[in-house]
Amino acid sequence: MCCCCPPAIRALFCLYVQSGCSKGSVAGALTFFPPDPPLYKFERIDRNGNVVHESDDDEDDESLDEKREVSTPVIDEMDRECLDDDEELLEVTGPTGRVEPIEHAGASSNDEDQEKSPAQQLMERAQKLRRRAKARWVRDCKDTANGVRFRLLLDSRLVSPPSRGAVIESVKLPNTKSKGYLATVIYKVPKSAETPHTKTIIYSHGNATDVGAMYMLQSVIVHALACNVVSYDYSGYGESGGVPMENNTYTDIETVYEYVKEKVCKGNAKNIVLYGQSVGSGPSCHLAYKNNELGGLILHSPFTSGMRVLTPSRLLSCLDIYPNINKIRHVRCPTMVIHGKLDQEVAFHHGREMHENIPEEYRRDPWWIRDRGHNDITEGPGMMAEYVRRLRRFLSNLDE
């Protein structure tokens, strides 16, 4: 459904009116498409180390989790190992180093769903997300009061590498503004490898993915760059509560930042580097715009604004979200842009314009990939190694 075709326009207008003229509701319907079901699960562990099974009062939408096969747990705070410095860089190429193609759970709609109008589909989706958000808020508040911990379980559809020795913690961070707990995975280098200059990357992922699908890449980054990586799911994604909206993603990254600054970086914000991929460029640019303490910013396939990706026309500018092009002009930290020249989802000119609007003092060499698109920058012989080399050079120059 194209956002400019008559049925879609009617659907958006209906949603706008029925949501109380909420720009966020319409923009959210256009923008956010979390994997359903998620590609991971947070197993709940009580104070005695026992698995907490899903209770009968959990929302119906969550029952999908029980139908998914989940692999053995990856390393978390209960299973700490030391990094083997002698291991070579993991070269992720070919079918064994990728997430296998997965059919979207919503791809096979029944006849009844197909007969529904676009407006009905949008409204029902919004209502479903709100119901799930309320139920998760209640459950997560109870879990916090009961001292429940979490263990990351990857979906069996994912082809994942070995843990590579990183210390992995799974936590849920309360975002009181959106009334949701954020599923957050913290990949730490072992204490023996930490230095006063160890960087921590806060990774804001792309649209149709979640922290489970990002596990492979985060493991490689931690091992190859000897830095910490914090990956989180936006409100309404994966195991996170709340609903996916632009403003919620802003408070999401602010919540994660405050936690990382205090708990991981011990108050030193200069060791924090933001990494925003695609949709993740929105919250990353927002925080870099507001915060002058950051160590750096990496934008991977960014866009100038959300609506400009859909159409160059400004007729729907009232619904525009993530005005990155306006915010990037005010960042006060070293910034690098990565973009594939064959990108058909977010055209290359978006990345180029973002790079050109970074203040010259903070503008760092971009990486324009001639033969890559939106999601395949690290794929192919030698591409992961080149990706790591580029990131390493950027990070190493931050302390100069």
Structural write-up:
This protein is of the alpha/beta class and 400 residues long. It has one domain: Rossmann fold, CATH 3.40.50. It has twelve helices and twelve strands. The strands form two sheets. Strands 5-6-8-7-9-10-11-12 form an eight-stranded mixed β-sheet, sandwiched between helices. Strands 2-1-4-3 form a four-stranded antiparallel β-sheet, with no helix packed on it. A hairpin with a 4-residue loop joins β5 and β6. The protein is globular, with a radius of gyration of 21 Å. The relative contact order is 0.13. About 12% of the residues have low confidence.
Write the layout of secondary structure elements.
Elements: H1 6-18, H2 23-31, E1 40-45, E2 51-52, H3 64-67, E3 70-73, H4 111-115, H5 118-145, E4 149-155, E5 167-175, E6 180-188, E7 200-204, H6 215-225, E8 228-232, H7 246-264, E9 272-277, H8 281-290, E10 296-300, H9 306-310, H10 324-327, E11 335-340, H11 348-356, E12 367-369, H12 383-396
Parallel strand pairs: 7-8, 7-9, 9-10, 10-11, 11-12
Antiparallel strand pairs: 1-2, 1-4, 3-4, 5-6, 6-8
